[in-house]
Protein 1
Amino acid sequence: SYEAIETGIGNTMFSGQVTLGTSGSAGSYTLTDAARGGHKTYDLKGGSSGTGTLFTNSTDTWGNGLASNRETAAADAHYGAAMTWDFYKAELGRNGIAGDGKAAYSRVHYGNAYVNAFWDDSCFCMTYGDGYGNNSPLTAIDVAGHEMSHGLTAATANLRYSGESGGLNEATSDIFGTSVEFFANNASDVGDYLIGEEIDINGDGTPLRYMDKPSKDGASADSWSKTVGRLDVHYSSGPANHFFYLLSEGSGAKTINGVSYNSPTVNNVTVTGIGRTKAYKIWYKALSTYMTSSTSYSGARAATLSAATDLYGANSAEYAAVANAWKGINVTK
Ligand code: ASN
Ligand code: ZN
Ligand code: CA
């Protein structure tokens, strides 16, 4: 049966009131984003398998901004998926995660007090827990962009999820997750180089990760060393997150959208940023054209230099900035 493309209202937890892509007609709507490949958002109701139940209501207004309303997490997840889709299309020239216009789907209310979110390539879907105690659902926009971008990586370089390639896989998700947050430019959740600052997973108001100085989380590496690949992938991502910050914003102190950063470099290398738009275009071109499942930090350097050459030329300021940003995190060849 024919289902019209509709625009609903989402009262989210992290992004205020937003418009959502929905489907249906008067009296019966679903969280089916017909304008974005038909992306659907489901309620797992505490379950941990299957798709659960498609969110359906009669008003096309979803959630009330509070976690106690089960549509609220759905509104956040649906919005995050939509902004990621739009970012891929507008900024990367990519039609969906796999580049074929096919939507993924989202599942919220996974398990009991589950404090994580994840992408699963076998279902081509992402899943969000509700968090524990005072935590909120893990449905903030940078988390959504992060998880969906695991699908993007799987569909492109397919970076193996261990060693240095695993760190690059994780960093790719942080790079695009942050880029989606900036792209959405939502007044309730402005862009920053912090990951998970809205979900308070640590319970003390600190974010999960810091791209300007990854070691601020107490575990991530700021720069490359020959043992970095031994770290958990969420910590060996640090040098590549730091590279992206340096390439975008440059070294030293800076305040962006009210957040202060201070990005140190190895040997005090000075990096002049080229802006995040050029930086994510270079990273995406490198990921989708030059990186493979076994790409290391050294390989990522070569891949981004090739991408910068393709996009801006070998004699460009952008090429020089890429080389300098790698130098700033101790990758010189
Ligand atoms: N949220 C985590 C991530 O995307 C889940 C995991 O570690 N697999 O990396
Ligand atoms: Zn991840
Ligand atoms: Ca963030």
Note: The chain has a mean pLDDT of 97.
Protein 2
Amino acid sequence: MSDDKKHGSGNVSPGDTSQRVGMEAVRRRGGEPEEIKETLIDAIGAEFTTYYYYTNLRCWLAGEEDYKEITEDARLEDRAHFELVMPRVYELGGQLPNDIRAFADRASCPDAELPEDPTPENILETLLEAERCAIRTWAEVCDMTRDCDPRTYDLASRIYNEEVDHEAWFIELLSRERDDEANPAGHFVRGEPGDAPYSKNHDFNESA
Ligand code: ZN
Ligand code: FE
């Protein structure tokens, strides 16, 4: 009596590859897969460009080994965020823009360019504001998906966790560098550079 199973069939005909139940399910719960997908492309555009810009910012923190190390973690974790969410764009019926310039232009955050006067203080401020934009971006995605798209919500909330970490790191460093003030993040170090404890699937709950 397998025909009687409650979820054995639905609106999408058996074998139809032009539609996705994974999108239908979002719609049925009041979400707009189109809108979510477009927001995700903007958001990972920001992760990808931030990864690029942080490469340069990290280089210009020459001689400041502690700042470089933290920037490296944030840089590699932002790349991990791009990688984590990219497949979701396709699952929601979208694709990566073919033109990298179009991709960069639609990023949801400003370019984290090297400041004209590239002092550690100015670079740390650039880094801090980039993290704040990322928090706002992923908070928006969480709000859009909380009740309708558990998969995107899970990815976005994992990234959100790391972006909040990143903000705290740069508040700590900028407070010391600019104001000679202790403003702890409560953080020591990630394991390996770019550990991404929330947004990479490896060793999330492993003991070894
Ligand atoms: Zn990020
Ligand atoms: Fe970040």
Note: Residues 74, 78, 131, 134, 163, 166 surround fe (iii) ion (ligand 2) (CB under 6 Å).
